[in-house]
Amino acid sequence: TLAYMSPEQAAGDPHDIDTRSDVYALGVILYELLTAQSPLDLRGKPIAEALRTIREDDPPTMRSIDATLRGDLEIIARKAMEKEKQRRYQSARDLALDVRRFLANEPIAARQPSATYQLRKFARRNRIVVTGVLCFVVAISIGLVGMTWFAIGKSKALDAESIARGKAVAAQQAAEAARAQAERRFDELRKLASVFISELDPRIRDLPGATDTRRFIVATGLEYLDSLEKEADNDTLRLQVAAAYFTLGDIQGYPDRPNLGDRQGAWRSYEKGLNLLERLSASSPEDISLQRRLSIGLSRSAVVLELLNQQAKADTFQERAYELLKGAAAALPEDTAVLLDLAYHENRLGDLAARQGDASSARSHYNAAKANYARMLEVDPSEIIARRGTAASYEHLARLDTAIGATEDAIAHYQTFIELTRDIIDGGHDSEAIRHDLAVGYDRLGLLYRSADRNALAQSSFEKALAIRESQVEADPKNMQAATAIRSSYCYVGETALALGRMDVARRRFEQYAAACERIVTAEPENAEAARELAVSYYKLAEWWRAAAETSADDAQTALAHRRASLEHLYKCRDAFEDIRKRGLLWPSDAGVLDMLNVEIN
Predict the structure, then answer these.
(1) Other CB atoms within 10 Å distance of the CB of residue 297
(2) For 39, 297, 407, 589, which has the most beta carbons within 10 A of its beta carbon?
(3) pLDDT digits (tens, 9 = 90+) for 72-95
(4) 334-419 sits in which CATH class?
């Protein structure tokens, strides 16, 4: 398309197009990725004017769009989009290497002045010397012209059959060279795309405000992968494509990391990756690393399928993933990566047993996970995945204790989880995902305190969770993980404040709860969870107005106004649930809610 056309393509000379034209297009993609806008504004321009713009106009510097985009990244993008192709990266591989250097905090090659640039600088400093050299070059050129004419004359005397044979050989060699060049270009582009899809997102994952960049990665990556999947003709390439699909699925909707909230999209990407892995696994059942990759893919898919209410399929995937990992662990008993995966799956299998009501089996799996993590921490106490996994095991145990009514044990386990997670953050491993885990721990500890009628402790715990989420939403309002979680925090703080008689705090938090739900429902009308929470937020406001009426009982007129406000919010709650029912989004557990609301209203 015009937006990615290089200056030489815009000039219309097909013989001037080579791999550096692809480098220019990749430079445009990098520019768009970083600035969220095209380097050249071609909208509404006639074709001739658009082509002139591509050939002649320079894009705005990235620092003029965003002051933080100065330095190496700007230099890399500028070099990739040089008007003179000789001054660009000479291949997509060179561009990819510089991107990798930047991601690894190493000096980039693009910082070094080109030979042409150095000569120009030299010419400005040494005009007399350069003039003499130019005269010498002209003299040599004249001699070369004479030699060329002599060679041409001799060439014309060659036998016609010899010329034809030479042309045929040359044509064959040219075709082979073109095919080899096309294969090299394809391989270079594939490698660079791998950098953008698989390596760039982990670098921005915990950066505030990175949501738009993630959307760009997903949109561009899916289009690229869907095309590449059809052309994947070897197992290595199929494996790379599968891995990239899982990376994009994580960005789209994996809940344990900042994501775009697109769970259906995540499952579609995972499914494509799984299909490729299943084919590879079937052809190489003895490949342990491949079986491990498949188990990880099945497990990640299970997490998202649970969120899509496909529990039976999720459980099947989880059990199969566990069996594959047990086989890998038996073959590689000292492999740290396999042990980490196995420990994670022990926790997941514990969750499955807990859902099935088998508390003993669940506890056994959770303790097995802790033991595996402990083995790794004995070797390397700083291993961050093992440290997070150990903390997660306590959180799983706390949920199990909550389910069986062992409140004090659950409180102790959540306190340990919070302590371990805070140690991780204080040790320099702060990230969006870890802070999300910490906020979840504070919320669940608060719920336990509230169930034990310790509302002051509950309020303190809920407010700590809310503070974490407010900072996350402020840093990136489009972070769907934080935007979803903060709704619960507003509700919890409001409920506990109401129980403690802190009316102003309760009202403010309930209103924030409703506003947060309204924003999600406006953006995602089919989001059943958000629609339900919006209805619940109206009920919470009705409760607040009812409590306000009771506290103002001595003032009959004020109490009446408050009761009317409570009734209005009950109507809004009922209407919201009725709309949910009509759209087929009503949860089975809410089947009797409309009857309950009608009784309360009447």
Answers:
(1) 26
(2) 297
(3) 878 888 999 999 989 999 887 788
(4) mainly alpha
Nearest to 373 by CA among 359, 393, 354: 393
Q: Residue 334 has which token pair? A: 């000292």
DSSP secondary structure string for all residues of 297-363: HHHHHHHHHHHTT-HHHHHHHHHHHHHHHHHHHHH-TT-HHHHHHHHHHHHHHHHHHHHTT-HHHHH
Residue with tokens 């004359």: 153
Q: How far is CA 146 from CA 18, 141, 445, 489, in A?
A: 31, 9, 90, 85
pLDDT of residue 187: 54
Residues with Cβ within 8 Å of residue 318, at least 6 apart in sequence: 298, 299, 302, 345, 348, 349, 352
With a CB cutoff of 8 Å and minimum separation 6, the contacts of 367 are 393
**Residue located via tokens 């960005």:** 251
User: Tens digit of pLDDT for each residue in 491-540?
Assistant: 999 999 999 999 999 999 999 999 999 988 888 887 888 899 999 999 99
State mean pLDDT over 124-138. Answer: 39
Secondary structure (3-state) at 71? coil
CA distance 230 to 244: 14
- Judged against a pLDDT cut of 60, whether residue 164 lies above it is answered with no
Topology given in CATH for the domain delimited by 2-146: Transferase(Phosphotransferase); domain 1 (1.10.510)
Domain boundaries, the chain: 2-146, 334-419, 431-495, 501-508+519-602
C-alpha–C-alpha distance, residues 227 and 85, integer Å: 27
Mapping DSSP to helix (H, G, I), strand (E, B) and coil, where does residue 223 land? helix
Considering only 114-118, 313-317, 376-380, 426-430, which range has the smallest mean pLDDT? 114-118
Query: Could you report the per-residue pLDDT of 551-600, keeping only the tens digit for each?
Result: 987 899 999 999 999 999 999 999 999 999 998 888 888 889 999 999 99
Which among 264, 356, 281, 363 has a CA at the least distance from the CA of 323?
281
Cβ–Cβ < 8 Å for 217, 201 = yes
431-495 CATH: 1.20.58
Percent with pLDDT over 70 in the chain = 80
Tokens of 31: 């520019």
> Could you tell me the pTM of the whole model?
0.57
